[in-house]
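Memo to structure team: turn this sequence into structure tokens by end of day. - J.P.
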Amino acid sequence: MKVSVTTIALKELDVDMMVVPCSEDHREKLATSLKALEDDGVNRALEDFTGKKGEAVVAYPSELNSRRLVLVGVDSDPENEFEHLRDSAARGASTCHDLKVETAAIVVPSYLDNAEMSAQALVEGFVLGSYRFDRYRTNSSSSFKGTQRLVVHSSSNDKAARKGADRGRIVAESVITARDLVNTSPDEKTPVLLAKAIERSGEKYGYTVSVWDKALIEDEKMGGLLAVNRGSMDPPTFSILEWQPDNAVNSKPVVLVGKGVVFDTGGLSLKPTKDSMDAMKSDMAGAAAVIGAMEGVARLNLPLHVVALIPATDNRPGENAYVPGDVVKMHSGKTVEVLNTDAEGRMILADALSYASTYNPELVIDLATLTGAAVVALGKFVGAVMTNRTDGFESRVADMVTAGERSGDRVHPLPLFNKYGEDIKSNVADIKNVGSRAAGSITAGKFLEHFVDYPWIHLDIAGPSFLLSADSYRSVGGTGFGVRLLLDYLRTYSNPKKK
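Reply from structure team:
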């Protein structure tokens, strides 16, 4: 979608649809400004508009260049102001889609102080709210391909609005990359095909990519990744993505790690199909988020040295599949007793986290659809954040939570107290790959903690990464959760004065 910014008079905006967001608290101020347009159609729509969240009232102006105008309500809650703007923009995008609108304008409410962040939020909400995954549909008779152009109208400070709109477009398109990867049919995203998609992305956006094949993975002794891959017909891959600009503010890299289980049957600990295995093409949503984030980092030209690691395999019950009772020697040299082959994500992440130490990283962040326990604890709209208790751990968590509030990818902290580690002690190996039923997302985090010797943040995104029904700008299927969170966090990390 093409995005531009203008400050011309509303009356002169030549588009198929003008989207005008406004909250209930500011409805009278909006009415005063729109009545100055002296358009009967708009005035009649104002009579029906209250500004309540979720409301959309369409008008057909006679005195404006815009063919239609839709008034959309904005939640009046002062907290999460930018998230409310995303929701209202998505409501406008949905109306545009229903009416087959090809060109649209969205008006930055004049009562908002921060034109840059407001424009970014509106563009994110509109672009993400316009998203449809139609790659596999063959029976569509409509020639409508969605809204193709969005004009952001700012009554003042067009420079700030333009900066925000440009960033919003890049961030949203990076999220769409992650969504498309998650939604792709599993037979089209084997580990090798996923690695090829990463290589194309790196070539397009200017970051470097190196892909290890199975032989190199064996040379590196990544026992966890190789164990999970034993039941598969397709070989594993290990992709290394790197963005290293000349003006990087960090001498040691920030490393991102994304769980890349391209399909998860559970292995011999087979999942039930309904409401479980049928959604497991999404088990690489952590990897997808990291790929989207790397695109965003490069496109935003962040002054930060960032490395990303993506271990990729599927988890199938093939004739040589790893079994409960196996003891696996990991990349770090530690041994793991396998008691559940469906606890595979932590096995491949552990090898990647161990390898990350070779970069002497400043910080490592992993993203994974790791546990159903995180869904039970936090539901479908919030991820879990955990960190090891090294120097500065409180600020690491606080900064990630704040980035979630700003970006809309919200996370909530869970503790990694040492006591939880007792639950994964093994009688025959250093640790076992599952604990008891209680605190399952935390014990999974404690498992990963065994393989880190640096400041580390773990994000369990199992709940919000894949939805069975749309929620505002969060689409059915892959949501791209984590991309906006990482980009907001890294943008602030590269310029702490903006905190």
